[in-house]
Amino acid sequence: MATRLNCPVDLREYVGRLETAGELRRISTQVDWRYEVGAMSRLVCERRGPAPLFENVKDYPGQSIAGVLLGPSRPHLLARAAIAMGVDPATPQLELIEIARERFRTPIAPVRVARDSAPCKEVIWDREEADLLRLPVPWIKEIDGGRYVGTWDIVVTKDPDSGWVNWGIYRCMVRDEQHFAILLLPADQHGGGILKKYQARNQPMPIALVIGADPLSHTISRAPLPHGVSEAEIAGGLRGEGVPIVKCETSDLEVPANAEIIIEAEVVPGESAPEGPFGEYTGHAAHRGRAPLARVKCITHRRAPIFTFANMGKPWDDSATTGALVESAAAKNWLEDHGVRIKSIYYYVPNVVVVAARPAPGLAKRIVGLLTGGHRLLESGIVFVDEDVDVTNIEDVWWSICSRMHPRRYEVIDNMPNYLPLWAWLTPEERAKREAPCWIMDSTFPHQWPAEYREEHTRVSDFASAWSEPVKQKILDRWKEYGYEDVR
Ligand SMILES: Cc1cc2nc3c(=O)[nH]c(=O)nc-3n(C[C@H](O)[C@H](O)[C@H](O)COP(=O)(O)O)c2cc1C
Ligand SMILES: [Mn+2]
What we know:
23 strands; globular; binds flavin mononucleotide; binds manganese (II) ion
């Protein structure tokens, strides 16, 4: 029996807790869904301010928009993620990653609830009433190709052979009242893999686009979990209780019953539509092309629904924060499952991973091999640091690269399987060939160096390491006397 955790059960409870913690502000002045909510919330991300809840949206009385609910916060990026996890927002990042890791190990199945007790069905828009433009879908950035109905979403699909249900966050751009294009990348994303099976049979693929579920259900939908794993069950583990789910009106897919909005649709066989560009988590507008087209069949929602969106961009966004948490947790478990123990791991957006481990023969190669064999665990690059480096502290990591990395310990691996067309750095040839390299920076000192050699050449020169305990204690004790108590 899992102990009951203190996680918010739905979006509304999460909003309330953010507000109490000073991590959310209600905006009652009227705002425009076109560009204004997007630009405002992007600046909020860049200044790491509280999430905005827009309660008065032009053209959409009675509906609100919430942006960047899991966006970057202070004092560290993950304070809002901590609130979603039901723990103190001041919990250090590495501790949060350990908590997530543990909860990943105890999946809890979703719990079916009756149709009449599912809040997401309070209002049902059927057939021609099911119009995407009746929802306050923002046009987030002026550089985007259109209004994005799916950013901080959950796309539910079901494998037609095994019945495996996948949850993933995929971007969805409105085409018209009843159609949207969805960036289901065929390479190795699970939704795209499932779509291929329906396409091979020339059958429509039922999907449900979930907006405004509880924060951990969304967070887990962007986690790099292996093929066949149920994100719904891992979400249950993270929450400490099964996610309440309810059957869709027009398909047998099941969706989080407490979500604000459910868009039931099907991906039309053989049809595609222009999609993108979209200001992405790489910090650049990325990828304009044709994407599978989905036709809306029904929209159900809570009364006075809250429409949620993510605001991707440089340097931080909802992807960077949640990625630091769940990518790091998933990767550390993956390494541990394969017998590799490391001290800590931390993912920086866009997908550069920093690993602190005690150097051992062949260890770096083994870690690279394992991460490459996982689901999107190694993309752009990997940095190895010694155990004394704080992987969550970018200044520490950069110091390690600048001061400890032998130039020959920089390496490029060609022809990586993790091809992702969103990268800004791909050459035109790589983009066409759908192949990309990745890099390794090993800033650990070689394990073969004798102790005396290390002692003479690698002692760290900082407050913690360059004085003995009594001297340091004296400085700390007299800190106030020096007139420095405000400096910490
Ligand atoms: C806001 C946001 C938007 C995303 N959009 C896409 C997308 O359009 N296409 C895609 O393949 N992955 C996208 N991702 C990344 C996927 O959610 C992530 O890789 C996840 O693991 C996919 O689920 P899957 O592993 O079950 O395929 C997005 C992530 C976030 C946080
Ligand atoms: Mn998946």
